[in-house]
């Protein structure tokens, strides 16, 4: 009797390869499907003005999500980004009547310093990232409400260059979109071409091994949270420039949207797995979903429910993707 095992027919191999390929690129396929559905659901979706409007609106989230992704890649979490957006927005709106350049500078510095506080609490006091950044979320929002007393800070007659940040155009593209794209390209290069980027992935994959190889894990972690704070501050500046007002609840719950975009893009909480490109896809999925539901008049409460469903599906697909990659 022969021990030879007959191989499966070629069409079975092809079917398995197609399924694997679909799982690997599930987030891209989801984005394409959503674009098709949006175009069918509303005749206004593909209008240039509509596209630029929702891209402009999603630019601050994209900046925050880039920082959030880098944090999660290192197996951390930053719940404070929304509050840091609010702090930077308050700083720039409060100081801009006196010195616009100083206002923008101090807003960026505020995000950088508060991010450093997060990193310091995590690296020096060994607090869990969840606890440290949760404390900053509450404290940061408290600072905003203490200063504003719950009232908006209106920016009257801002300089043209400041208005250009949030409301201007570079050619046919809104300035916030250009800023977000520039930040994305810059961080892609940092993550792929620099030692810092390799260390981020390494810490997320195996922190103890990184320590054995002599990597300054605490130093890298501190810089990760500072970077997240800086990008959040930039998002706050864009919001004030666009709206000409700093609201006390600016950036409220943006941390959840940023985490959602990160998970939809394929980055996992296990660390070391994911990409900024995937996060941009996640931001676009959320932006297109929200825009489409608004165009067809769907309740914002239903939008929140659908976003939750999408996150669950995205996480399940991410787990399937990791199994395929293994």
UniProtKB/TrEMBL annotation:
Q: Which InterPro entries match?
A: ABC_transp_permease
Give TM segment ranges: 28-46, 58-77, 89-117, 129-148, 168-190, 224-243, 263-289, 301-318
UniProt subcellular location: Cell membrane
Membrane topology summary: Multi-pass membrane protein
Task: List the lineage, top down.
Answer: Bacteria, Pseudomonadati, Pseudomonadota, Alphaproteobacteria, Hyphomicrobiales
UniProt superkingdom = Bacteria
The entry's protein name is ABC transporter permease
Q: Which keywords does UniProt give here? A: Cell membrane, Membrane, Transmembrane, Transmembrane helix
């Amino acid at each position: 009797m022969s021990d030879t095992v007959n191989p499966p027919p070629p069409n079975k191999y092809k079917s398995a390869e197609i399924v694997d390929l679909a799982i690997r690129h599930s987030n891209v396929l989801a984005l394409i499907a959503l674009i098709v559905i949006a175009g069918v659901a509303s005749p206004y979706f593909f209008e240039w003005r509509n596209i630029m409007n929702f891209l402009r609106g999603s630019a601050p989230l994209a900046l925050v999500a880039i920082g959030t992704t880098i944090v999660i890649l290192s197996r951390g979490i930053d719940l404070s980004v929304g509050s840091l957006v609010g702090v930077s927005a308050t700083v720039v709106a409060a100081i801009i009547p006196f010195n616009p350049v100083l206002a923008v500078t101090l807003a960026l510095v505020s995000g950088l310093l508060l991010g450093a506080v997060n990193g310091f609490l995590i690296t020096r006091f060994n607090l869990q990232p969840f606890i440290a950044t949760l404390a900053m979320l509450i404290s940061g929002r408290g600072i905003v409400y203490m200063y504003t007393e719950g009232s908006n800070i209106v920016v009257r007659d801002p300089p043209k260059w400041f208005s250009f940040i949030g409301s201007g155009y570079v050619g046919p593209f809104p300035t916030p979109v250009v800023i977000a794209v520039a930040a994305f390209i810059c961080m892609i290069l940092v993550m792929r071409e620099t030692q810092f980027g390799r260390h981020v992935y390494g810490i997320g994959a195996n922190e103890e091994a990184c320590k054995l190889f002599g990597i300054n894990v605490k130093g890298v972690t501190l810089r990760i949270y500072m970077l997240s704070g800086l990008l959040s501050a930039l998002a706050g500046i864009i919001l004030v420039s666009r709206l000409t007002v700093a609201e006390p609840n600016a950036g409220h719950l943006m941390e959840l949207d940023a985490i959602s975009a990160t998970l939809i893009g394929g980055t996992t909480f296990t660390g070391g797995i994911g990409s900024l490109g995937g996060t941009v896809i996640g931001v676009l999925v959320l932006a297109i979903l929200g825009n489409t539901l608004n165009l067809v008049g769907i309740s914002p409460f239903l939008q929140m429910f659908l976003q939750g469903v999408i996150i669950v599906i995205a996480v399940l697909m991410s787990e399937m993707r990791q199994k395929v990659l293994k």
